[in-house]
Automatic annotation (TrEMBL), chains A, B:
Pfam families: cNMP_binding, HTH_Crp_2. SMART domains: cNMP, HTH_CRP. This is Transcriptional regulator FnrL. Residues 20-137 form the Cyclic nucleotide-binding domain. It comes from Tabrizicola soli.
Length: 245, 245
DNA sequence: AAGTCGCCTTGACGCAAATCAATTTGGGAG
DNA sequence: CTCCCAAATTGATTTGCGTCAAGGCGACTT
């Protein structure tokens, strides 16, 4: 029997899911057919508002979504960047704790929450896999905390570029090649929200890294990295652990 | 049969565990007797070094431990504060990603990792409960990210005090009384590492909050809060969600 | 072609927090 | 009690990043 929960290719899903997939011929999962559905969102659209009732969980199929938190006076901090295969939602909690916004056009594969929860309760592997993913996210969040709390603006930018490069590489299963290049999926403002900076500082530091030859730009969204080790050094990373999220 | 995994009082544990407990008369858990043990650590002692092989998981029984990350040049960021009942370790990963240090004297209740992992694989409830705890921690980490990225020094201090007050209240199951007071379990330097500040700034902001009547100090580790709402306002918290960690 | 709009860059200036540098406090040992 | 020393406070100064402001660069529309 086919492994039915981890990295499964669904019939009509463009990517291999890390989450539960309904297309597998397992009895207990068959009924999921009825509780699985797709939703599309346009760039800029809000997928979930913080505080909203959430009756589904799901994973990103394509596009990029972001988790953000906003203070009353408008200060905003991104607290999660959701790439394809990332999981959204919380079994066991009924309201969303953060805003989820589509950064690019997004397709999500959703499962109604209640049946998903019973599935978790009955299928140890699913809960286990979900636990593993959540622990990975927690590790990533903690790396991110070091970035926010202690790194300089320049280090933050270098870190962000290497994080995106690393995740993109992981997604396409290719190892770091000689001269790798990355498309930044975020505006300067979104990068600023990610890094706890202002957009002006982001722009300045990117210019500085360009001037110093750490990166080169084609357009203002595409970055080439001539020397990845140089970039990592600028990022102040000792841990080169290729963590997801 | 007694509920055997969540909030159980162990025979010889001083507190009610949120994690798995070996003292319950359940067949599948009986063997855990042999794989559960206690370890004590003195204040300041390192429990686990980042990168070390970790062959156990466990939960804090008494005392306070902290999870920290350090850059080569010595900049340090706390990324987790472990109070009694908090879980340490990662089923599914063999090396520790962060330093764990005993902030006060600490007693930990440990389980050898391998048998614990098989337990998780075989007992859905355990994985489920662990997932729930990890998701709570992730939510807390994300609140923390907002703090690190966007709050001012004064807001950070006010947030820290209210977080500690909230957690202490949760631990003792008492609701916020009129004039609540908190023992800060951290030195100024540890607070600074928690908040992404320097110890001087921490000291200055505590003095400022005292001068403005938001808090009063008895000694320099004990804080009284005359008006909790005032403090929360200073903290810039809209979400008053009583999250753990 | 000209106009508009979103996004980005660059400059000038100010301020919050870091850094550097003394003291002061207070708890524990003798 | 007095000494000692880590922890905390407070002051003076510097600086990195935020803020405010002006202008540039494509990509669309008309």
């Amino acid at each position: 029997m086919q492994d039915h929960f981890v990295h499964v290719q669904c019939g009509d899903c463009p990517i291999r899911h890390r989450a539960v997939c309904a297309r597998c011929d397992t009895d207990e999962l068959a009924e999921l057919e009825q509780i699985k559905y797709y939703r599309s969102f346009q760039a800029g659209q809000t997928i979930i508002w913080s505080g909203d009732r959430m009756d589904f969980v799901g994973s990103v199929v394509s596009g990029i979504a972001s988790l953000t938190q906003t203070m009353e006076d408008g200060r905003r901090q991104m607290v999660g960047l959701l790439l394809p295969s990332d999981f959204v939602g919380r079994p066991g909690r009924s309201t969303a704790a953060f805003d989820v916004t589509a950064t690019t056009d997004v397709v999500m594969c959703c499962f109604r929450k209640k049946p998903f929860e019973t599935l978790i309760a009955e299928t140890p592997h699913v809960a286990q896999r979900l636990l593993e993913m959540t622990l990975d996210e927690l590790d990533a969040a903690r790396e991110w905390m070091l970035l926010l709390g202690r790194k300089t603006a320049r280090e933050k930018i270098a870190s962000l570029i290497s994080i995106i490069a690393r995740r993109e590489a992981a997604l396409h299963k290719k190892k770091a090649s000689g001269n790798l290049s990355v498309d930044l999926p975020l505006t300067r403002e979104e990068m600023a929200d990610y890094l706890g900076l202002t957009l002006e500082t982001v722009s300045r530091q990117i210019s500085a890294l360009k001037k110093d030859g750490v990166i080169t730009l084609e357009g203002n969204r595409h970055v080439s990295i001539p020397d990845i080790d140089r970039l990592l050094e600028e990022a102040g990373d000792d841990t080169d652990g290729g963590l997801p999220v």
